[in-house]
Every structure is written in structure tokens, then in C-alpha cells.
Specification:
This protein is of the alpha+beta class. Helix content is 30%, strand content 35%. It has a 7-stranded mixed β-sheet with strand order 1-2-3-4-5-7-6, with helices on both faces.
Length: 161
């Protein structure tokens, strides 16, 4: 079941996100996030921008949200997207369902463009975004370092029509 985020989801969302921080280069954060910090981040994004969780087996299995891509007023119709799933729920279509919900909510709210920033080697995210109609529009070389390795990042864009 996909629903809007609640502040009480912060602990589970932090758990999911911390798996990516400590075990992958998918996020460039390097230190785990506390439940309180995640609650603060959720409160900053929601309810101004779309933020959803997917429940499976009576617990949050994943989440996605959109936030401003840039701060200048001219960018107000462009949002950056984020989606994360708990490892135990990958490959079940939940990421697709979350992102489809997010895309439709962004359309309903008259946003024009969605941007996804994806780290080199994240083939699952590349495939997900391509399936949803995003197209790669940039490739930045060696812009981040994590676990002693320089990492590339690509931006993917979806124009909402």
C-alpha cells in the first residue's frame, strides 16, 4: 500500500537509508542518519512537496519524495526525485509503484520537470528511471568520493506533459 509519509515513519526510513549510506555508493552521505534527523528532513519536505512510503508486511518497505532541484524562483516547476527500498523488498515492483505515484502527484501539482541524480554503477536505478520515461541528460565524472573511490553521477530528466 502506498500512502503519504508520516513523521512516525522516520525511524524506519532512517533504517532503510542507513543501509545505503553504510553499504553502497548510491548516496554520497557517509554518516548514518538518526531518527530525529530523518524526522527533521521529512518535516522540511512534507507537506510542501510529495513524499510517499510503500508498506508491505505491515512495515515501510520503501519511500520516495521530490524536493526543489535548485533554489532560484525560475526553477520552481522542477523537482529532484529520490527513491529507496529496503533490501528485502527489491525486485518486487515497489520502486516502480512508488515512482509512478510520485510522478502522478507531481503532474497533479503542475510541476514540469523531474530530475533524478544517479551514481555510476546503479544499474537498478538506471533501469527503473528509463522504464518510467526518464532520459539521461548529463554525465559528471569523478564528482564524489566514497569508500576511497571517485564516482561519476548522471542526471536523468522526465518532462511532465
Amino acid at each position: 500500500m502506498i500512502r503519504q509519509v508520516r513523521l512516525q515513519d522516520a525511524g524506519r526510513i532512517a533504517e532503510i537509508y542507513n543501509e545505503y549510506i553504510t553499504d553502497s555508493t548510491i548516496t554520497f552521505e557517509t554518516e548514518p542518519v538518526s531518527e530525529d534527523e530523518m524526522r527533521r528532513r521529512i518535516a522540511e519536505i512534507y507537506p510542501r512537496f510529495p513524499y510517499f512510503v510503500c508498506e508491505a508486511g505491515n512495515k515501510v518497505a520503501g519511500y520516495c519524495y521530490a524536493h526543489p532541484w535548485k533554489e532560484r524562483a525560475a526553477y520552481r516547476y522542477t523537482l529532484e526525485t529520490t527513491v529507496y527500498l529496503s533490501a528485502e523488498y527489491k525486485g518486487q515492483g515497489l520502486g516502480t509503484a512508488l515512482m509512478q505515484t510520485l510522478i502522478e502527484e507531481c503532474r497533479r501539482n503542475n510541476y514540469h520537470v523531474l530530475i533524478a541524480c544517479i551514481t555510476e554503477g546503479n544499474e537498478a536505478s538506471n533501469a527503473l528511471h528509463a522504464k518510467l520515461g526518464f532520459r539521461q541528460v548529463s554525465h559528471f565524472k569523478q564528482v564524489g568520493m566514497k569508500f576511497g573511490k571517485w564516482l561519476d553521477v548522471s542526471d536523468y530528466e522526465l518532462i511532465l506533459e
